[in-house]
Amino acid sequence: MATRILDREISAAVAQEQPSPDEVNGPTAYDLFLYPVKDGMPQIPIRAPLALLAIGVVLLGGYRWYQMTYALTYGLDAFEPEFQTYFMNAFWIQMTLITIFGAIAIPLLWFSRPKDVLAMTPLQELSRYYLVFAIMTVASVFVVVILALYAESDAAWHQITIRDTDFTPTHIGLFYYAIPIGIVSLAMAFIWLHTRMPDYYHRVSIPLCIIMSGPILIMPNVGFNEWGHTFFYAEELFAAPIHYGFVTLGWALFGLGGFIIQALSRVHTLTMTAKQSQEKLQQAA
C-alpha cells in the first residue's frame, strides 16, 4: 500500500532544516513566472493563468470564428468538395497536431520529473497549490465556453440540418478538437500533480482518477450516439435515450470536489507548518 506523507513529515528539507536546491541557487525566471514570490512568501500567480487564458481564447475563439464563417456556406453537405476542403482537412490537421502534442508533452512531463520532490519546502509546495487553483479557475472558464459555444451549437446544428455523416462542422469542432484537447490537458495535469507534488508521492488521487475517467468512459456512447443518429434516431433532443450515457462526463466532474478537499487540507497543513517555522525563527532571533 502506498505511503502518504504525514503532516509531521512534510518534506526532507523541513525535517533536516536544510535549504532546498532552489533556495541555494535562487529562483529562475521560469520559477518566478509560475510561482511568484514577494518578501519570501508565495503569491497568487497572475501572468501564467493570463497566458493560458490568452492561448485558450485564440484556440477556442479562433475555431469558433472559423465555424461561424464557413459552416453554413460549405458545411451543409459532407459530399461536396468544399466540405472536404474546409472541414475534413481541418479535421485531419487538428487531430494530427493534438496527437503529436500529446505524444510529446505527456512523456516529457514523466521523464523530466524531479528526483528530489520530497526536498520541497512548505512554502514552495504552497506556491504550487496557488498555481493549481489559478489554473483550475481558468479551466472552469474553458469548460463553460466549450459547453456554450461547442456542445450547445452542436445540438442546435443537428436540430436544423440533416445529419448526413458523423463528421459535421460542429462535431469536428467538439468531438475532434475541444474534447481531445481537454483529454490531453487532463492527462498532463494528472502526471504533473503526481510527479511534482509531495502529497501525491507514491500514491494516487482517487478524485483525479475519477475526473480522468470521464472523457474516456463517454467514448463508447459517442460511437453509439453517432450510429443511432445516422441510422434510426433523427431527433436531436437532450433527453433522447441515446444521450443518457453522456451524463457520465458530468458525474466524473464531481470528482473536482474531492480533489479540492484534498488540496485545501494540504494547504492548511502547509500554512500551519510555515507559521510554526516562522515563529521558531523569530524566537531564535
Which helices and strands, and how do they pair?
Elements: H1 12-16, H2 21-25, H3 29-34, E1 37-38, E2 41-42, H4 47-74, H5 81-111, H6 122-160, H7 169-196, H8 206-217, H9 219-231, H10 247-253, H11 255-284
Antiparallel strand pairs: 1-2
Describe this structure in words.
The chain is mainly α and 285 residues long. The protein has one domain (44-284): Glutathione S-transferase Yfyf (Class Pi), Chain A, domain 2, CATH 1.20.1050. The chain contains eleven helices and two strands, in the order H-H-H-E-E-H-H-H-H-H-H-H-H. The chain has a two-stranded antiparallel ribbon with strand order 1-2. A hairpin with a 2-residue loop joins strand 1 (37-38) and strand 2. Helix 4 runs parallel beside helix 6, helix 6 (122-160) packs antiparallel against helix 11 (255-284) and helix 7 (169-196) runs antiparallel to helix 8 (206-217). 19% of the residues are buried. Residues 1-19 have low confidence and may be disordered.
Summarize the model shown:
With 285 residues, the chain is mainly alpha-helical.
Straight-line distance between termini: 43 Å
Number of helices: 11
Structural class: mainly alpha
> Helix proportion of residues, in percent?
over 70%
CATH fold field value = Glutathione S-transferase Yfyf (Class Pi), Chain A, domain 2
The total of beta strands comes to 2
Principal-axis shape equals: elongated
Percent strand: under 5%
CATH homologous superfamily descriptor: Particulate methane monooxygenase subunit c2. Chain: C
CATH class descriptor: Mainly Alpha
Query: How are strands sequenced across the largest beta sheet?
Result: 1-2
Total number of distinct structural domains: 1
Overall mean pLDDT: 84
CATH architectural group: Up-down Bundle
Radius of gyration: 23 Å
* Main beta sheet: 2 strands, antiparallel
Low-confidence stretches: 1-19
How do the helices and strands follow one another from N- to C-terminus? HHHEEHHHHHHHH
